[in-house]
Structures
1.
Amino acid sequence: MTSSPAKRDLMVLGIETSCDETAVAIVGGDRRVHANVVLSQIADHQPYGGVVPEIAARAHLAHLDGLIRRALTDAGVGFDDVHAVAATAGPGLIGGVLVGAMTGKAIALARDLPFLAVNHLEGHALTARLSDDVAYPYLLLLVSGGHCQLLAVAGLGDYRLLGTTIDDAVGEAFDKVAKMLDLGYPGGPAVERAAATGDPLAIDLPRPMRGRPGADFSFSGLKTAVRQRLSAAENPHDPAWRADLAASFQAAVADCLVDRTARAITRFSAEYGAGKALVVAGGVAANASLRARLSDLAAAEGMAWVAPAPALCTDNAAMIAWAGLERFAAGQRDGLDFAPRPRWPLDMTSAGAS
Ligand code: KG4
Ligand code: ZN
């Protein structure tokens, strides 16, 4: 390859294996998703009520080759049509990350293609540029199973942490509440379904951090309060009461997210100007009632509201291919000696974020 094609003509193969989804995608610089295959391991982990890292890594290993073949077939292309290979290289469950990153490196080596080691969080952070072509800078609320962060996305590779959780991630709280209510795994969608028939005002629950300065989150007290309401309930197995508890929990989470995001908007707008976009990303951003509350907040604050389709919010490889494509188009490359990172904060200036 002598002259490099324009960004819109690029095509990148992406691989995602950092948690319990084995995913491969092929994405174009014109923002077309040519292939996007996701194999969920839900059934493998269901008996354990959560993700078992060893099982996840073995399942990635068993299925990744076949999924890569399927993605190429879906897109109607071969390795020769692809300009680079991008793979999640952290943060996440290291066994799975190693499987995806090593496979990506092997393809890059065998086909003489550039390799991009992508930060999974950067994949979530840039999804809105793939789905909606959002311009920098924007304010990002990243809510997933492992993270709950507010970030100023000022440019490619330029991320500033405005707030983070001081204990549990929001998805983790959904998963734990689902477990308490015997709703099974994965918890978020199950709690959302249960909440649909419940009354969000029925059960009094705390809103940790609400009204406090800064934009940090806390969910562990809310989770404990749910447990206490359950053990104090007269009839904890009544389905209607359980629906009320799920709905009340979801409403409390929404209030916390809205309060903290409103604080971050003030800081963000002071620095970057008013009227920019509020973007949500990560698995929890698939929740319709949270999306509705946050979109109301964006409208009230005069911000544009961007929420990628739920399938692009939960883990997928299109976001990894896209983040790789953005970095490749900016002239960046990673060596085949890149060491995968179980912890890898997006804002490298902030200690403790992962
Ligand atoms: O981004 P993601 O797919 O994986 C991580 O990188 O963590 O997020 C998974 C998290 C899980 O905690 C899951 O329960 C939660 O996202 N989640 C939801 C919903 N769908 C997935 N939480 C609330 N409502 C949903 N509809
Ligand atoms: Zn994720």
2.
Amino acid sequence: MSDLVGYETEGRVAILPIDNPPVNALGIGVREGIMAQVDRAAADDSVEAIVLIGLGRTFPAGADIREFDQPTLEPHLIAIVDHLDTIEKPIVAAIHGTALGGGLELALGCHFRVAVPSARMGTPEVNLGIFPGAAGTQRLPRVAGLDHALELIVLGKPVGAATALEYGIVDDLIEGDLRAGAVAFAEKIIADGTPRRISSEPRTGIGSPEDHAETIEKYRELANRRMRGQDSPHQAIDSVVDGMTMSYPDAVQADRKRFELCKNSDQSQALRYAFFAEREASKIPDIGKEIAPREIASTGVIGAGTMGRGIVASLADSGLPVTVVETSQEALDNGMTEIVKLYDGMVQRGRIDAAEKDERLARITGAVGFEALSNTDLVIEAAFEDLDVKKQIFGDLDKVAKPGAILATNTSYMDIDAIAAATSRPEDVIGLHYFVPANAMRLLEVVRPAKAAPDAIATGMALAKKTGKIGVLARVCHGFIANRSRLPMVREATFLVEEGASPAQVDAVLTGLGMPMGPLAVSDLSGLDVSWRMRQSLADQHDPAHRYMHLADRMCELGRFGIKAGKGWYSYEDGGRRPVPDPETEAIAIEVAKEQGTPRRDISDDEIRERCLYAAINEGAKILDEGIAARASDIDIMWLYGFAYPRWRGGIMFTADEIGLPEIDQRVREFHAEHGKLWEPSPLLTRLAKEGGAFTR
Ligand code: 3H9
């Protein structure tokens, strides 16, 4: 028998500790163990109640996701949960850490639930493209009521123990030692003769779908809005609705089929891949856990522009003191005013209260000149994107920063090796590439210059974690991973407009893939002038054999900078942000096409999809081949968190594997022949296509 579930007794109470680190996932060994030990307790005459508890950091955090790719071995979790109903002795789930998914379903099968106040519980299965498949969709509505159950099941966000108590999911909160508290709770149940509560029985009527039509519709709409294009939230709702019209056993039976369909769907495969990819990203192949990050107790930010302010807020939000430095009092005052406004906005939107705003603002100090950074552990430069300016800043910073301070640049594409060389301590220089708005976007691209010390890199990754971000490591090249792999998509989008597609057609094809906005609408939002300036700064490096973005330049020359100018690829009426197709864009495209000798034609949606997506994939393959990204999945995480690529498609490299590399390689070769050098096929793509290989498997 499996030894992952123990058996101990305290007086009349049997305690079954689950011991399957790190998260006590309910793999086959744990399932076998629970079944066997529950039966042992049921048969043990000296035992009158049973406590199920997790050892280590948590109650089970769900089914073992790694088992999903294999046939499920018996006993299935649902069989255990249903079996608990038949045990005559009261069973208490003692919850700490996170009771998630199958973990919460196991707890719902227990007759009572107690939790420490710090515990969190929920059913995040929709995030994996499935739904609670061990009767959670049947039992949770009976225990918590339909609205609360749908909130947990459809939105997939866990709640804290206090909320769980309010929802009726837990029966009591235990302050202090959980095991002792749970045993005392069980003793009291025995003493009071409290009847077992069986959550598969309707405690109160849960009503019919008609009774709850409004609530059900509310969650359908929320699912459409927050998880656009994703099936599992709707499958979850269907399952809950089944429970309102069928008997418990029939609804569970229907769930089994539906669960298998979901589990085997492309969306679930992609979402599970994304789950592990995200965790993999934090592992640095050649820097083991034994390399400790440097201690960061104080931080500084150079520059109080849009990016700088977002970085300041991100640091202050996570409890770090920040000194923000500007070159003049006026610039500093402006920046500080904007930072206050940013927090006022958060208070207005109900994200934080006024006291929290004051606390966060109290962590921020303004100063003019670098002297104020002389005792700071980590400084992030967020100045103008100009290599000479940055070199100057790092040279000056080098003179005042304390030994061992991390000196980071927020550049989004520049040569950080050159920036590091402007200091006497290149081992302390790293890149921390934030995304706008820096306080809200979860991605942080941690860039590793050639001479950076391993513990400097570990510190960058640790900072990401501390500030609630996903840190992904990149090596130095123009645009690193994120911008370098996205540029080809934007480039093709603009070429397609020059060749005859409308911006709306191009964007619609990409939103059709599940991205919330197309690349041209995004350019309008962020400003066409940003990449225009970049192209200008790199004009002397332009390879004449590479097709050039003449149309994008022309748009800027005509002042069409995007939303801020009221016109870009689209026009924007009355200062609004709604893109309206603009015939002037077509006229400009026709003019530029004529000047460049580009034939205009009807362009199919398929061509748009292939050119935009395959150009990015081909570049991703080069990034991987050159070692700029350590793993294909790191590129995917950049796309999921940086560019809102739909998580249920896994990322561009995962999508490539789904489509099949021979198909992509073939099309890339055809585009190369047709459109020239920018389409040079990645040798890695070609090799993998020939060998039947893949990027992500
Ligand atoms: C389910 O339950 C289906 C049922 O309804 C029906 C069944 C029939 N399985 O995240 P961390 C690994 S679906 C396997 O870094 P944290 C993780 O990969 C499940 N492995 O820690 C990592 O491994 P490594 C529903 C898992 O403290 C290590 O554990 N449940 C699982 O930041 C540490 O993880 C969920 O969706 C798993 N279920 O966060 C919850 N969970 O060290 C999924 C984790 O090799 N889990 N691992 O990289 C989580 O959300 C977070 O892991 C948790 C801890 C919040 C628990």
3.
Amino acid sequence: MVGAQWGDEGKGKVVDYYTRASDAVVRYQGGNNAGHTLVVRGQKKVLHLIPSGILHRRKTCFIGNGVVIDPVVLFGEIEDLKAEGHLKTPRQLRISDRAHIIFDYHRILDAAQEKSHGKGAIGTTGRGIGPAYADKTARIGIRVAEFIDPVKLRERLDAILPVRHEMLEKIYGTRCPGVSEVVREYQPLAEKLIPYVEDTGATLSKMISSGKRILFEGAQGTMLDIDQGTYPYVTSSSTVAGGACTGSGVGPTAIDSVIGVTKAYTTRVGAGPFPTELPEGDPVGEHLSSTGAEFGATTGRRRRCGWLDMVVLRHSVRVNGLTGIVITKLDVLRGLKELKVAVAYKLDGKKIDAPPASPIDLGRCEPVYRTFKGFDEETRHARTLRQLPKNARAYVEAMQELSGVPAILVSVGPDRDESILLGDPFCCGRKPARG
Ligand code: GDP
Ligand code: IMO
Ligand code: MG
């Protein structure tokens, strides 16, 4: 299950919803830059690192090798969950021995790099995600297996930290913690981590061989993917479906279906091109922002809002190989007179139907809109397509037709139960659902 836009599509809600039908839930990339919101009978829970299946006692949650883990955040989240009566045993949360660790110095570097970029800053979440992935790729990262072994941890830090020191203190003029300081801060957390650690890839392979259903939970969204997104205004991991394989140690032949979660409109947090963005002060933009409560679940930043972009959604269909979509926040469109959907872009007088590679060119694209009729009736009580207002139904049908992919769920409110179930996420190849 992947985000089909720029993140915050409602993946947390949808993963929690489908955990019932799964045996395990796996986070495979990203870190605590994610903020996944679950609402169960009015009770709200935001998760950053722990998979969104964790409220289901009998299901196993996995943090795969592709994730970057900030141990301070991880244990904060574990303690919160325990205090609320969840996560009673480490058997319920298994963490890959190959995942990478985010240290203080990654966060310090994230902030220093953003500051040095000035106006060109990416607007990261400041959680040290980019620097941790950069270390992983440069082969100077520290993995969980070494983190939990005091001798290996010190050895790795002795080798790595002098380089970091040079960079942080000489180039950026900020302080870098020394080896002993890092060991002192992180050693207690490393010990606490031991009961959760295993070769999660091997466990998942066994589960798959014995016919278990595994739900892979993407973080961020396709347009924030390091390769397929609006580079350089992206995150530093593979947010697309392929990332589920590399980030969990499961081969692509084990994946049966790929679901893209998309809002009925579009939002984005941080910098970067956004062709259908509505300018600040635009009444429709204000409606989406306030009715949709569009503030980041991680940083609290105001999300930029705009119309649905089919060029983006079709790009997502292609790069993820989507077999189904989940449409969220349909209820937020209620009260708008007309609904616009970008069906193509115009760039230098030419019509194009795929996002150009350069962020400068994407920023110059003019959306070509198709207009649909709005609706005023309440939608949040609807549990079948027929119970939706006629114009809302027509919009859902248009989203399926324009994307070429059937909807398997339509979400009409934040609560787990505010959902119209249309198909099985584990099966592919359904025909577009009609009201
Ligand atoms: P994620 O990062 O993809 O998990 O999404 P976030 O949790 O960051 O943001 C989605 C927000 O929309 C959360 O506040 C959800 O509670 C809320 N939400 C999810 N689905 C719906 C929906 O269908 N309608 C409304 N009104 N809110 C929703
Ligand atoms: P979920 O999983 C929305 C954005 C940041 C920034 C860019 C890079 O909740 O959908 P990073 O800290 O990753 O280096 O920031 O990516 N970003 C997100 N936007 N939802 C998220 O996660 C995001 N995670 C990162 O705002 O533009
Ligand atoms: Mg989010």
4.
Amino acid sequence: MAFRAALRNTSALSGLLSQVSSCNHGRVCASSVFVVAQQRNNSTSPKITVDFDQSTGVAVMRMKSPPVNSLSLDFLTEFCISVEKLEMDKSCRGLIITSSLPKVFSAGLDIMEMYGRSPERCGEFWKAVQEMWLKLYSSNMVTIAAINGSSPAGGCLMSLTCDYRIMADNPRYTIGLNETQLGIVAPFWFKDTMANTVGHRTTELALALGLLYNPNEALTMGLVDQIVPEDKVMTTAEQAMAKWLAIPDHARQITKSMMRKQTIDKLTAKREADIQNFVGFITKDSIQKSLRVYLEMLKKRKA
Ligand code: CO8
């Protein structure tokens, strides 16, 4: 029988969230449009639901942070706590990550967390991004991304941390690490995660040009493992999960660790330097200008 994890009621979450809001002393953004976006990010409603089926040992995590499941500090905090809770529950062996929003899996990192923010806040944010990656990439659970919408940048990274990716076969959806299109650079561990999946040269081209791929292209290059009609994404994910769970846990986990340990150790060893590097880079005037231009382009495209 499935039950819904009451994550927002945990004292750990409220403690962390209050810590988060107390360090939110970012500068006020110039335009009212950006203020609206920031207010949206400050919402305290849960951004994730988790349904854990004890009979199968599989949890389904649904991201539901409108409009586009962007990865804000609040979102990442809630996300990491959810994963941690499942990880600690030994009866949970598998995790399917999906979106409950139409058309979008995740729009990646919340650009408003990188625009007009104080260095302290940027550092806090980046630490949370690292935490999400570390938790997922090293998870003992079988992790499957059920990609039921577009998944650029950090959304692509999130799905790349999973053991297996299934994407909805809708040519309007795209996936990829498009950071250079924003005038920013995917850090080494984004690059390593992609190279571990699709190889060095394909990653070089993808990152340099900030390419976003449709589902067919993503399948051909190995960025996703399967594409299926949109209404079959979840059932296919459940079938794939059953196959993965048929493998003895210890053998699968040791294999996963063997494949990923080097990449994980690299970030773990350089975590603080990576935060400093991000903060120094993202707070540069020229980078802030690029982000502003990109945000304006997003708004114009909509109009
Ligand atoms: N962050 C914040 N707000 C966003 C983001 C985002 N990533 N993406 C979209 N939004 C906002 C839009 O501006 C819009 O706001 P408003 O309603 O106020 O006008 C709202 O969300 C809805 O967006 P759309 O109308 O574009 O929604 P669609 O359903 O038409 O399209 C997409 C959805 C395809 C996801 C589209 O919004 C999109 O392409 N978004 C941009 C995605 C993107 O480029 N993300 C990159 C983020 S950077 C990252 O993840 C890694 C950074 C690594 C940093 C390294 C530095 C050293």
